[in-house]
Hints:
Blueprint: E1 7-12, E2 17-31, E3 36-42, E4 47-51, E5 54-58, H1 62-76, E6 82-87, H2 92-97, E7 105-110, H3 113-122, E8 135-139, H4 142-148, E9 154-160, H5 174-183, E10 184-193, H6 197-214, E11 219-226, E12 234-241, H7 251-255, H8 266-272
Parallel strand pairs: 6-7, 6-9, 7-8, 9-10
Antiparallel strand pairs: 1-2, 2-3, 3-4, 4-5, 10-12, 11-12
The structure holds S-adenosylmethionine (SAM).
S-adenosylmethionine is lined by residues 56, 65, 86-90, 109-112, 115, 141-143, 160-162, 167-168, 170-171, 193.
Protein name: Polyamine aminopropyltransferase
Active site: 160 (proton acceptor)
EC number: 2.5.1.16
Amino acid sequence: MTLDNRWWSEAYTDEGVAFSLQVTEKLHEEQTPFQHIEVYQSTHWGKLLVIDGCVMLTSRDNFTYHEMMSHPALFTHPNPKRVLIIGGGDCGMLREVLKHPGVEQAVQVDIDEGVTRAAQQFFPELCESNDDPRATLLFDDGVQYVKDAADGSVDVVIVDSTDPVGPAEGLFGEAFMRDVHRILGDDGLLVQQSESPILHRDSILKELHGVMRGAGFTQVVTMQFPVCSYPSGWWSATMAGKSGDITQFRRADAEAKPFRTHYYNAGIHQGALAAPEFCKELFSDQ
Ligand code: SAM
């Protein structure tokens, strides 16, 4: 990271590439017991949230990520009422989930209260549903929370985590996935941020598909979408189902959604499920 010449940069040295945003000032910096949090003001992308040197979100482009991690799963499950978000401390996922009037409870479990405090101060628009009576915000380790949760107690689990290093490492492992499978109801769905298809197909996506299947999920699909500020700008969410065909979704309900989105719609949902040639072997359920 450097503020030289007023550019904030994140270099992915393994891939020989870097992403930079023009910034005017550092608004916040904090070392929590879990990670290093920074917030910057950028010139064209609104505010920038950084954890341990990695972009988490910008004001301008976080909508593609938050919408594609939430609405496809919620329009695939036949009747999602109980949603669990693991991570998601910036609260943008919670806001999208609570747009669904059928959702009766949404529990967000982030290990680090510092992320939510920073979001409330610098990204209030992401936190606008935090006081919804259906919302519960907890600060705890998601691995432990899922281990302790009751069988069949959740309809949709969304894992909105940092990369699979540090506190988030366990969220990509099979023990965690087995617990998620156990706490999901019969039609239950898991959706997990699964990094970049072009950078991480073999290192993360392939492993994640294997781990999800190993944990007992019968179908695994990966959806693709742009996130301009993430490594390569090309991102993915992987959805795993306990039963049924998760390539099918409630298309008529998605077309008639009673809320506004900036990216998600029924056509985008369908298109995101298409498997590119270089991923076909891996995305065998699509
Ligand atoms: N979408 C971002 C990305 O892919 O770069 C990540 C968003 S950020 C909200 C991810 C959150 O995961 C952080 O707030 C972090 O505190 C949380 N997290 C990491 N490990 C966790 C764990 N074991 N349990 C719960 N939350 C965790």
